[in-house]
Amino acid sequence: KHYQDALDIALKEQGINHLCEYYFSVEFHGKRINHKHFVDFLCKDDGLIIEVDGEYHGNGEQIEADKMREEALSQMGFRILRFTNDDILFKIEYVLETIRSSFVFTR
Description:
Elements: H1 2-13, E1 21-22, E2 31-32, E3 38-39, E4 41-43, E5 48-53, H2 60-75, E6 79-84, H3 85-90, H4 92-102
Parallel strand pairs: 5-6
Antiparallel strand pairs: 1-4, 2-3, 4-5
């Protein structure tokens, strides 16, 4: 949750948080896309999903699960951006620029 919070704060500081919704609750982390999929950030108008991946995303089983999940979300019409915890901590400008350049619609 800490890294997602850090990204949410950075998006607010850049004035672009209104384009993406950050979801978190005690029961689950994420916004339910359907009965199977939760995401960290959802930019509805753009069909853009932003995920912040912790260390466990680097193990073999999780890599395969993430790949299958990403394929399913892509088939539903979503584009997915993935960042690591280290990206959030040490490369936040890169993360923000990548997100900004990925928007199709701007408000």
